[in-house]
Structure formats: structure tokens, C-alpha cells
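Final report, closing paragraph on structural work. Over the funding period we assembled a curated collection of sequence-structure pairs, and we close with a single example.
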Amino acid sequence: MRIKQSGRYCYITFFSNILTSIYIYTFVSSFNLVLRQGFMQQDK
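Its predicted structure, as stored:
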């Protein structure tokens, strides 16, 4: 049981880490898009 629980725990942490990295990547990319649009509007 301990091995199964530890394996399941590792899988959950690995999956959560992937979700967190994807969430951070999307947040940074969307933030960069907003900054670019702001700069483009200032140029106009």
C-alpha cells in the first residue's frame, strides 16, 4: 500500500507541476500580448 500511495502521490505532484507550468506560461504569454497591444496603441 505504501508503494502505491507514494507512486500515486508522485503522479499527482508531477501532474500538478505540469498544470502549474502551463498556467504560468499562458499567464506570461497573455501578459506579453497585453503589453505589446499597449505599446502598439501608444505608437499609433
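The chain has a mean pLDDT of 84. The CA atoms of residues 3 and 35 lie 48 Å apart. We thank the funder for supporting this effort.
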